[in-house]
Structures are given as C-alpha cells and as structure tokens.
Amino acid sequence: MSEHWFKAHIRDMDRQESLEHLKGYTVGRIIFDDDRGPTALPVNYVVVGEDVLIATSPYGSIAHWTPGRQVAFEIDDFDAANETGWSVVVRGEAEVPAYADLPDDNEHRPYPWAEGDRRFHVRVRTTDLTGRRLVPA
Amino acid sequence: MSEHWFKAHIRDMDRQESLEHLKGYTVGRIIFDDDRGPTALPVNYVVVGEDVLIATSPYGSIAHWTPGRQVAFEIDDFDAANETGWSVVVRGEAEVPAYADLPDDNEHRPYPWAEGDRRFHVRVRTTDLTGRRLVPA
Description:
- 2 copies of one chain form a homodimer.
- Helices cover 10% and strands 50% of the residues of chain A.
- Chain A is mainly beta.
- In chain A, strands 1, 2, 3, 4, 5, 6, 7 and 8 form an 8-stranded antiparallel sheet that branches.
- The two termini of chain A are 18 Å apart.
- Chains A, B: This is DNA-binding protein.
- Chains A, B: GO terms for molecular function: DNA binding.
C-alpha cells in the first residue's frame, strides 16, 4: 500500500451533521453486550426523530440482549484511495416500541434485506450523537 | 427504495473464510465497553496470525478502555443495489504487545490514515472468528 505524505486530519461533526449522515444511510451496526462482552451486528435501519429503529428476529441475539440496555449504533464510509472517511456513533438505551408507536407506513419502517421473521423492533433512544471526519491534509 | 421480491439468505462463513475476509481489508471497527457501555470506533488494522493489530493514540479511549478486556472487531461490506453483503466478527481479549512482538517491518504494521501519535498498539487475541454472508435468493 502506498503511504501518503500527509496524514488526514480528524474533525468532529456536530450533532446536526451527524444526524444528516445518519439519515442518509440504511445499513449500520448495532453494538451491544452479550454474555461474552461487546459485539456488533450489521442491520438495516431507519431514523425516527433522532432515534434509530431496526427490525430483527424475535429469536436472535439483538432481541435477547438489547432491550432496556445501553447500546450503540455506528455507521461509516471510507475512501481507501484517499485514506479518508467518516463515522457516526449513536449511544442510548434500546427499547421495544409499542406497535402503535411504529411508523404508520411501510416506507418509513426498517426494510431488512435478510430473509426471516423480523417483526421484533428495537429503537435506540439517542442520547449521544457524534461523528468524526477524516479530511485530507 | 425498491423492494426485492425475494430476500437474501443468511449463510455462515467458516473460520477459514472469515480469516480470508479479515486479511483482505484494512479498515474495521474496534468494539469495546467504556464507562457508558458498548461503543465502536473505526480503525486501520493488520492481521497477525489470526489476531487483529491496531495502532492508536496512547491518550485515546481505545488505549484507555481495551487493554486486558474482552473486545470485538468487526468488518463488513455491502451492496445496496443487490441488498447483499457480508460481515466478520472477531472476539477476544485486547492486549498491549511488547515492542519486540510487533511485526519487524513497517509494511506489516498497522498504517493509520489519521494524523497524530499512534504508537500505542493493541492486539486482539482472537478466540472467536465468525462471519455471515447475505446471498441473493
């Protein structure tokens, strides 16, 4: 791999810029603790207000380990050629929303790519919403 | 967003296939617990044996929170048009390797894109190495 003469600078995004990035994507990673420590699973998501809403299997590890607990949600994108990129991290408690609180129309609900029963919704109640950018020197 | 008629199947990767993917990338996410729960930060990495080696700031949160603790490391890639992708998750304890145990030549050491003092190395001692693929229906 070729080394760049000048390394990229790290710049913080403010909450609004972080939220814009969050709204612009549909795949991220839910970060949670199970009985063996922290782990991550990629999932499709939508943004509701400033919260992250995902749809998962009622029998899977996300449904088992996240409700009522502190979690994170991360998205990012990178440009290997230019050695730049950005990431956004949401932190907050995961909750299981009441059916009545889900978005009314399918279009605003999470749309999982993966097969299977994904009727179990988890909403990350955003407290922290931060982002960082690697900008070229 | 257009909905596909048939959703993708989830297939497990075996350890060897997961390792091949891990060796093929240079950016992933270190997943760890700090004093506010689980979180994730993107980092550049190299693979040493089956372990993940990163270089970070001695003053940052990775250096503060990971040594001696259980962590995870995640990589993935997605194809939004085809609604497919894959992910690999490493789990294990993070340790600070002795200088003598670092790869001899720079080429095999982590090459951080970001500016700053990144002389603090963290090695994730891989115990679990698993992967999943979303394959078209």
